[in-house]
Every structure is written in C-alpha cells, then in structure tokens.
C-alpha cells in the first residue's frame, strides 16, 4: 500500500534535498545576473550624469570665463581638444579621470575617463563590460558670413560641449 504523503516515500528526503539545492542554485544565478545588469544600468546613469556635469561646466564656467576675458574666438581652437584641461582650471575633474593616452591600447581595463591624443577624443572605459564610449569636444557656431572661421562680432556660438561620436566607432551601446 502506497503512503499518501510524498515525504514518507523511500528516497523522498534525498529528492527534496536535491530539489532545494537546484532551486537555490537557479535563484542564485538569477540574482547574480540581475545584480550584474543593475550595476551596468547604474554605470550608464553615472556616465550620463558625469557627461551632463562636464557639459554644464564647459557651457557655463568656460564660456563665461572666455567671454569675460574677451577671448571667445580662442575656443574654436579647442574643437576636438581635451575638455579636461578646462575642467581642471574652471571646475573639477571627474574622480575617475585617468589622464591622457597616446593610443587606445594604453587604456587599462579600469573603468574611467581618458583623453586619446591620437584620436582627439574622450574615451570612457566601462568597468562593467559595457565596452568603450567615445566623445569629442565640439565648438559649434553659425557661420553667418560664410568666412569659414568664427568671428565673435558676426557669428553666433551655438555650443561648446562633449558629443557622443557616431555609433560605428563606439564599442558600447
């Protein structure tokens, strides 16, 4: 006669132990995947926040400083330059800025901001396997007289900011 309770069947306790171990393993894998994905999402938010802070500093502090000194034309020579030069003088550097590199191969796997001198670009190396993100410093103006160069009395400055480079160059999403 069969016992109606599963726990009293021969080998049932061993089966329940295996079942619990399998369920705990599956839940652990799901939890680890979720926390990894959460870390990546947090890093993306931090990248956007840092980028916003950099752009705010460039557009407010740097522009105000150059306008006050009457040197607005000089900003055009910094197109595709190192924005961290301005941040070091007028604002503050991101805590995870690691300096300039001559080639992308010099960038270590530590997550943070770098300036690539050869490519004249800012590179963010992800700490969470998101790849690299590439940005360039843009001096943008409306050339009202078609001279091909910025003239503060004629042309209109429309932006001085870090812009994400086209996606075919990026390794991140």
Number of H- or I-type helical stretches? 2
Structural category is alpha+beta
Tell me about the biggest sheet?
Answer: 5 strands, mixed
With strands numbered from the N-terminus, the spatial order across the biggest sheet is 1-2-3-4-5
**Could you give the count of β-strands?**
5
* Beta-strand proportion: 15-25%
Q: H/E order of the elements? A: HHEEEEE
Distance between the first and last residues' Cα:
63 Å
Oligomer: single chain
Provide the helix percentage.
25-40%
Mean pLDDT: 83
Give Rg in angstroms: 27 Å
Overall morphology: elongated
Uncertain runs with pLDDT below 50, 5 residues or more? Answer: none
Can you walk through the features of this model?
This protein is α+β, with helices and mostly antiparallel strands. The chain has one domain (11-164). The chain is built from two helices and five strands, in the order H-H-E-E-E-E-E. The chain has a five-stranded mixed beta sheet. A hairpin with a 6-residue loop joins strand 3 (121-125) and strand 4. The relative contact order is 0.12.
